[in-house]
Design goal:
8-stranded mixed β-sheet; 3-stranded antiparallel β-sheet; 13 strands; single chain; about 30% helix; binds iron/sulfur cluster; alpha+beta; binds flavin-adenine dinucleotide
Length: about 375
């Protein structure tokens, strides 16, 4: 049976929970706010299925081939504006919905927490659009996807690399009618940190949130903003460099332990397609860059290629070299470094206001002094 000895050995994909034939595993929140499986040992029949489907215990060995890579964005400017990068996810998902299929991805629930959800029509697709920088709970979606696949419907399942490998191991066989899309992934922050941040903003603005986006392009795609609209009409909008939550995320102080030892970030993936922000597009494919959002698309299978080819009229695109587009130094290709104050941050999280924790992100005094001297000499 599944037993988590080291937190970094569980990415929280939920495959074991959904597979257990005795329903004797449940996801429980730890003190940092991340979900981990917990087994009811009395009910367990030691069938071993939970271990068999775990994508961390049984990491797929990938062949080293270079996938085809594209810089692309949707020509529909409205759709692109609402998407984090170039809007490729929506265009790909629409293909599945047009065939009567189902699309799975991450959506906010009524309490602004992030859960995986399945949708069947284009209006509902808006729920999945846009990056939510919080770990998404897959809940029962692997089982729901399997049911739709067995009914012969096309299924497009999107998520982080670890969630996609969890789904594939859960399914245990290849389905012709399944398309998988993983995102380039920096890491996932704790749902408790997100909740604390949002409640702090609601208290500050004296009203509940009615709309949230982590990726407003009001100031451009590169300099994107966290934007929260409140029920009393107030608006919070701050760029990634100034917003506290985005800094906690990007400086790696609140990520899941498995994200500091990620086994899913290679250039080669088990998915059909990988999508991400094409940071550095101005150097590799400047014709596909206008600072309104460009996606990087990696194609890993013939199914993925067929879907990209079907989009030729709807996107502006250019083929690029995968290694140049996503060099080994990119944060979505290697595990990020643990922040030196991570432990202290989580120790303080539940008894201090979140704005009091921003100071933990500062570099040590020695580094700051060195930087000042360097800048002074330069001048
Ligand atoms: C936690 C996280 C970290 C990321 N890190 C990087 C990075 O380091 N480098 C990079 O280039 N790109 C990263 N991305 C991907 C990027 O932000 C865009 O999601 C991606 O480029 C797709 O953009 P789009 O315009 O095609 O579609 P959009 O409509 O913007 O994206 C929607 C897609 O993102 C998925 N999604 C949204 N939130 C989550 C979530 N919490 N968990 C799982 N799936 C989610 C949806 O299911 C859907 O498939 C990250 C995304 C997330 C959610
Ligand atoms: S060994 Fe089988 S019964 Fe026991 S927890 Fe794992 S899947 Fe469930
Ligand atoms: S299957 Fe997923 S949730 Fe279960 S132990 Fe493995 S990584 Fe964790
Ligand atoms: S960094 Fe790796 S382990 Fe963390 S969510 Fe992304 S794919 Fe999963």
């Amino acid at each position: 049976m599944i037993c988590i000895n080291k937190k970094s050995d569980c990415c929280g994909c939920g495959a074991c929970v959904q597979k257990c034939p005795k329903n004797c595993i449940s996801m429980k929140k730890d003190v940092e706010g991340f979900l981990y499986p917990e087994v009811d040992k009395e009910a367990c029949v030691e069938c071993g299925l939970c271990e068999k489907v775990c994508p961390v215990i049984h990491k797929e060995k990938m062949e080293k081939t270079s996938p085809k890579a594209y810089a692309a964005y949707a020509k529909d400017t409205g759709m692109r504006e609402e998407s984090s990068s170039g809007g490729l996810f929506t265009l790909l998902a629409e293909q599945t919905l047009q065939k009567g299929g189902m699309v799975f991805g991450a959506a906010f629930d009524g309490n602004w927490q992030v859960k995986h959800t399945g949708v069947s029509d284009t209006e509902e697709l808006a729920l999945l659009r846009g990056s939510k920088y919080v770990q998404s709970d897959t809940k029962n979606t692997f089982a729901e996807a399997k049911q739709a696949l067995q009914q012969g419907r096309e299924v497009l399942f999107s998520g982080t690399g670890c969630q996609i490998e969890g789904l594939q191991r859960y399914l245990g066989k290849k389905y012709e009618n399944l398309i998988t899309i993983d995102i380039l992934c920096h890491g996932v922050p704790s749902p408790d940190v997100w909740e604390k941040y949002l409640r702090f903003q609601e208290k500050n603005f004296g009203s509940e949130a009615e709309y949230v986006t982590f990726r407003s392009k009001r100031q451009g795609w590169r300099d994107f903003s966290m934007e929260i609209r409140f029920k009393n009409g107030a608006l919070y909008s701050e760029t990634l460099a100034k917003d506290l939550y985005m800094q906690l995320f990007l400086k790696n102080i609140c990520l899941r332990p498995s994200c500091y030892d990620c086994r899913f970030k290679s250039l080669n993936r088990t998915s059909d397609l990988t999508i991400g922000d094409f940071w550095g597009v101005e150097n590799v494919a400047p014709a596909i860059d206008d600072d309104r959002g460009t996606s990087l698309v990696l194609v890993h299978s013939q199914k993925g290629m067929d879907m990209m080819q079907a989009l030729q009229k709807a996107v502006a695109f250019q083929e690029v070299d995968a290694e140049a587009a996503l060099p080994p130094s990119a944060e979505s290709r290697h595990s990020v470094a643990l922040h030196r104050n991570r432990e202290r941050f989580f120790r303080d999280l539940h008894h201090k206001e979140i704005d009091k924790l921003g100071g933990l992100l500062k570099d040590p005094l020695k580094t700051r002094v060195k930087r000042k001297i360097k800048n002074f000499i330069k001048k």
